[in-house]
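User: Last request for today: this protein with NDP, please.
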Amino acid sequence: MNSFVIPPEIHHSQDSLSYLENLEGEKAVLVTGGSSMKRFGFLDQAVELLEKAGIESKIIDGVEPNPSVKTVNKGKNLMLDFEPDWVIAIGGGSALDAAKIMWAFYEHPDLEFEEIIEVGSIPELRNKAKFIAIPSTSGTASEITAFSVITDLEKKIKYPIVSPEIVPDLAIVDPQIPATMPSHITANTGMDVMAHAVEAFVSTAATDYTDPLALKAIKLVFDYLPEAVADGDNLEAREKMHNASTLAGMAFSNASLGIVHSLAHKIGGEFHVTHGLANAILLPYVIDFNYQAAENKFKEIEEYLGINDLKAEVKNLNQKLDIKANFKEIDWLDYTEEDFEEVLARMSQNALEDPCTLTNPEEPEVEDLKEIYKKAYYGE
Ligand code: NDP
Ligand code: MN
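Assistant: Here's the final one, the structure of the complex with NDP:
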C-alpha cells in the first residue's frame, strides 16, 4: 500500500504569519534557534499575534544547528512546566526538528530517545498539544515532512527520526521570514531544494502523487533561485523559492530521496561542509550516474523545462550562484587531499548504508560511490 501524508493546513504567501491571530487556545510555546528570529522581529510579531488571539506564550530559544538530544530534553522539561496546547516552531530546519521531538517527549514524558529511533515508533501525539511549523529557511521543508534529524553528542551520531506523527498540523510558509537569509545560505539551501525535487522525482518510490510536486519545484528553483540570491529583497523570488521548498518537501517526504543525500550526509559528518552546499556539488555527478537507470524520468524533466541536458543546466546554475564545481576548490574547508583519501573508504561504505540509498534509481556498489566522491572532490 502507498500513502501520501502532508499537513492538513498550509498557509502561504506574504503576511501568512498573521494566521496566528486566528488560533484558539490558551498557551503556546515558541521554539526557535539562536538569535535570527529575535533579531529580525519575527518572534516579537508572533508573540503579539498570539496575544491578540488571547494566547499566553513562552519562548524556548537557543536551538543550535544540528540540534542535540540534550537540547530536546531541556525543551521537554520547559513544556512540562508550562503545559502549552500549541507548540509553535519558528526558525530553520534545526529549530523545527528539535521542536518536533520536544513535543513528542512532552506528550509522552517517560519515552526515551532510544525508543523513538526505529522508524514509525513515536506513539500517538496530539493529546496535549498541536504543532505549527514556521520555516525561516527555504530548504529542509521540515514544516512538511515526517522527519526530524537529532544528534546524539555522546555517540556522535546524527539520527533521522521518521514518523507520520511528527508531520505538523499546520505550516505557515511566509516568504518575508526567509527574506532575511544572507545570500550564501539562500544559494545553498536553494540547491538543497533542487536536490530534494530531482531525487524525489527519479526515486524508485515516486508516485503519481509526488511527481507533479517535484517537477514544479525543479522549475521554480531554475526560474527563481538566481534572483533570490542576487537580490534578497525580491519578495516574488523569495516566495517562489519558499513554495518550491515546501512542494519539494511534499514530494520527498512521501517518495524519499537518493544517493545525493546519502553522499552529502556522510561527507557532512566527516568535514564541515554544509548540507545544501554538499548537495549542490554532488548533484551533477549523481545525475550522470543515474541517467540511464531513470532515463525516461530525466527526459521528462528536460522536456518540461525545455532543456537538453539537466546535468549541464545544474552545473550552470551552480556557477551562476557562485557555488564551486568540486570540493577541492572550496578554500575554506578544514581538510586536505590526504584527509579526504583517508576517510574515502569509510565514507563510501557509510553512504551505501544510508537509508536514502534504498530508493536511488541505479543500485550502487561501494566502488561506485567512491568514484562519485572522487569526481566530486577533484572535478572531472
Ligand atoms: P538551520 O536551522 O541549522 O540554520 C542555519 C543558520 O541559519 C542558523 O545560524 C540560523 O540562525 C540561520 N537562519 C535561519 N533562518 C534565518 C533567516 N531567516 N535569516 C537569517 N539567518 C537565518 O538551517 P537549515 O534550515 O538548513 O536546517 C538544517 C537542519 O535541518 C540540519 O540539522 C539538518 O540535518 C536538518 N534537516 C531536516 C530535514 C527534515 O525533513 N526535518 C531534512 C533535511 C535536513 P539562528 O539559529 O540564529 O536562527
Ligand atoms: Mn536535503
